[in-house]
Amino acid sequence: MLITLAHGGGGRAGSRLIEEEILSRFGEGPLAGLPDAAQLPGGLVFSTDSFVVTPRFFPGGDIGKLAVCGTGNDIYVAGGIPRFLSLAMILEEGFPRAELSRILDSVAAAARASGVRIATGDTKVVPRGAADGIYLNTAGIGTADTRLRLGREFLREGDAILVSGGIADHGMAILAARHGIEGKGIVSDCASVGPFVSAAAEIAGEGIRFMRDPTRGGVGAVLQEIVGPSGFGAEIAEGMLPCRPAVRTLSEMLGIDPLFCACEGRVVLIAEEKSAEAILEAWSKLPGGELAARIGRVNSDAGRVTLAGEWGGRRIMIQPDGDQLPRIC
After folding, report:
1. Alpha helical stretches, state H, 57-147
2. 164-202: string of b/e by CB count within 10 Å (b at 16+)?
3. CA-to-CA distance for 59 and 66, rounded, in angstroms?
4. Looking at beta carbons, which pairs linking 37-42 to residues 24 or more positions away fall under 8 Å?
5. Own/partner pairs for 36-40, CB < 8 Å, 24+ apart?
6. Which residues partner with 237 through β-bridges?
7. How far is CA 248 from CA 222, 239, 256, in A?
8. Do 44 and 106 touch, CB atoms closer than 8 A?
9. Burial 117-148 (b: 16+ CB within 10 A, else e)
10. Cβ-based neighbours of 313, under 8 Å, separated by 6 or more
11. Smaller CB count within 10 Å for the chain: N or C?
C-alpha cells in the first residue's frame, strides 16, 4: 500500500492510517482518544502541527497566521490556554527572502494577538525541487483552563451541538485563491478561537462537555470523531448549518459539501442544553460569530450522525474516504 493524498485529508482513509500505524504503536497514555492536544502532568497542555497550505497567501491569512492560530486553537479546544510556541521552518533553495519576511511578520502579529510567545525553533534548507517553497511546524504548550472539564464521558442525551460561526469559509477561500476564482465574501475564517472558548467557559463552565475545531474534514468529520467512540450519536439539522451566501454558492457550483469543508477559526462545542442560548448570544457579539448557531443535539443512536433534511427526511451521514480539498492547512 502507498500513501495517497486521501490519507492526509481527515476522512476515513486518514482515520484508518492513524489507527493502524500510529495508535497501534503509541496509543497508550496521552495519545489515547486522539485529542487535539495532550493533557500532561502538572496541568500542561501540549500540541503540534505542520502546515503545507497552498497557496501560501490567501484571502484572510497566510501560512504564518495559520500556523499560529492552528496550533493555538488545538490547545484551546482541548481545554488549555496557549502560552508558548515553537516555530520550525523547512525552506526550499531559491525561496524569496521577501516572502519569508512577510510570513514571519504574520507569525509575529498573530502571536501578539493571541498572547503567545515564540520560544524556540529550527530552520532547515533543502535543495531546489525537494519542497514546495516553505513548510512550517509549530508546537504549542499551554496551561489547563480550570473552568473546563472536557471529555466524551461527560456527554448526555439532549446536549446541544453548537458551532461558533459560518462553516467552510477557509476551505472555499483556499480553493478560490488556488484556482483564481474571484468572488466577494470568500474569505478565510483563520483566527484564534480563544475569545469563543473563553466566553463559553464563563457562561457554562463544566457544563461544556466537549470541543473541537473543524479543520481537515470540516464539521462533518469532527462530529463523526466525537460520537464514534462515545456511545452516543448526533442528529444534525441540515437547514441550521450556517454558511455565508457566497461560500454556499461556490460550494454548490463546484459540488463540494460545506459540511466536510475546513474551517480555521470556528469551534464545534457540545454543552448542556440550559446553557446553549446564552453561549450563542455571547458568540454572536464576537467578531466572526455573527452566524453562530445550534446545529443539532446528542442522541442515543450510538456512533451515528443523522442529518435531518429541511423537508422532513433523515439520512445517515457518510464521511468521505478522503479530502475534497487537499493541502488546506
Report:
1. 63-77, 97-114
2. bbbbbbbbbbbbbbeeeeeeebbbbbbbbbbbbbbbbbe
3. 12
4. 37/74, 37/75, 37/77, 37/78, 37/80, 37/140, 37/142, 38/78, 39/78, 39/79, 39/144
5. 36/73, 36/74, 36/75, 36/77, 36/78, 36/212, 36/213, 37/74, 37/75, 37/77, 37/78, 37/80, 37/140, 37/142, 38/78, 39/78, 39/79, 39/144
6. 308
7. 20, 12, 9
8. no
9. eeeeeeeeeeeeeebebbbbbbbbbbebbebb
10. none
11. N
The SS3 call for residue 20 is helix
Tell me the C-alpha to C-alpha distance, in Å, between residue 133 and each of 70, 96, 120, 125. Answer: 20, 9, 22, 10
Cβ count within 10 A of residue 59 = 18
pLDDT in tens, the chain (329 residues): 788 877 776 667 777 887 888 888 887 777 777 777 888 999 999 999 999 999 999 999 999 999 999 999 999 999 999 999 999 999 999 999 999 999 999 999 999 999 999 999 999 999 999 999 999 999 999 999 999 999 999 999 999 999 999 999 999 999 999 988 887 779 999 999 999 999 999 999 999 999 999 998 899 999 988 887 778 999 999 999 999 999 999 999 888 999 999 999 999 999 999 999 999 999 999 999 999 999 999 999 988 999 998 777 889 888 776 667 788 88
Give residues with Cβ within 8 angstroms of 164, minimum separation 6: 193, 196, 266, 267, 269, 283, 286, 288, 289, 292
Q: How far is CA 106 from CA 62, 99, 252, in A?
A: 8, 11, 32
Q: What is the pTM of this model?
A: 0.93
C-alpha cell of 160?
446541544
